[in-house]
Amino acid sequence: MPCPVLPIRRSWPLHDTAASRAAEQRAALTLPPHTLMARAGHATARLALAIAPHALRVDICCGPGNNGGDGLVAAVDLKRLGRDVRLWHLGASDRLPDDAADALRKAREAGLTVHTGPPERLDADLVIDALLGLGGRGIESGPLAQAASAMLASGRTVLAIDLPSGLDGDTGRVPGGLAVRAEHSLSLLSLKPGLFTGSGRELAGQVWFDDLGAAPADDSATALLVGPDRVQWLLPRRRHDQHKGSFGNVVVLGGATGMVGAAWLAARGALGSGAGRVWVAPLGGGSGFDPTRPELMWRSSASVLQHAVLMDSTVVCGCGGGDAVREPLPTVLHHAARLVLDADALNAVAAEPALASALRARAQRGLPTVLTPHPLEAARLLGCSVTDVQADRLQSAGRLAAQLACVVVLKGSGTVVATPTGLPLINASGNARLATAGTGDVLAGWIGGHWSQIGQGEPSAVDAATASVHLHGWAADRSPTQGPLLAADLVDAMVDAADTLRAAAR
């Protein structure tokens, strides 16, 4: 029986088109002909009955490949179980793959009427999308576009087989400009990265998985979908004999004139994650005080830019820093023991090649850095457009990590955590409630505070980034309201989420 993937409860290996095709070919060598397609169709029919048990009428749109064949098998099953099935097949019957041709023959033998033109209207209780699966090159025009448009206009519950048609399974983009929006998607044999980043989360709805008894090996995964089972073991735990000095120092350097709140929000994040001491050095000058968090300590930027301070601290730099952040950046890049660069610090690195060189030099000296760009900041760093970044978020994050020798947190739907050489991670938590001013500052500060407690090196940087991103999203998932989650409220929500995960790990 297909199992639910979202809401996320465990981590999952993800396989791109090449890895999925290789697993399919291996399985085909050991199984009787048409077995995988039969299993896929049966799984689709079972899920259809589970999500729409009272649906008496089912419309199924099948494309010209094996994804369409899966839909044909499901149609036979559903007809046999008493459903009124209407079937459209948009492929030349004399050019079908062997499995799909066999499925079409069996559908006709079962007495199903197979319509060969696109549907004008779909009004059944349940609609099944079997137009395009893995490897589809997008939908631009013609009968497939007409069928996809009919599904979009139907207002009915849509179940997509493997992927919503028009969605790229590797990247989460919509290459042809048109894609089906499904309430449920059943990923078959393997889970595809594109379901969880880019446009995938919006188009795929509730994601289900069935490995068809032939799942690819975990060591062939091309990415990892991060769940709470991984994160709960990354959260720092406090021994009875520890003191505040055991949990590290965080310096927040940012907050130019008019943007001081960004630095204080980052500092709240660092404090909430458990950092021992948090110093805030606003670049706008003057003194400061957060009456709601008097534990936070104001310092002048000159005092925190001392070599001894930087070498003993995790520095979160850039939050609301404006152009003022460019002056202290060379010193920070050279001396900070652990460094989180966000917002205007990233823009400064993108604009000044010398700063980018200094960033790469940190890695050569064993000093790790985490970058937290949103897509526009990543585009500036890569010298490309936001469209280019979003077209392949996994590749973009990996390129940036390799180019600057850093851990990269590419924010957005399906935030990606990438390193220069390791397996990319996709975060499965979060929603658009986080699309409010200051939530990125909280995330940067939380990463810094978490990292300050767990040590030096790239592995600890990845752990801090992964856990922080997941908690950041999970706090929004757990929010009792449907409206925006304000940054000032986010820290407490993340503290509560972390406590819940720690308790689950006991």
Task: Provide structural commentary.
- It is a single chain.
- This protein is α/β, with parallel strands linked by helices.
- The protein folds into two domains: 3-227, Rossmann fold, CATH 3.40.50.10260; 244-504, UDP-N-acetylmuramoyl-L-alanine:D-glutamate ligase, CATH 3.40.1190.
- 41% of the residues lie in helices and 15% in strands.
- It contains 19 helices and 19 strands.
- An eleven-stranded mixed beta sheet has the order 2-10-19-18-17-16-15-14-11-12-13, with helices on both faces. Strands 1-9-8-7-6-3-4-5 form an eight-stranded mixed beta sheet, sandwiched between helices.
- The model has no long low-confidence stretch (mean pLDDT 95).
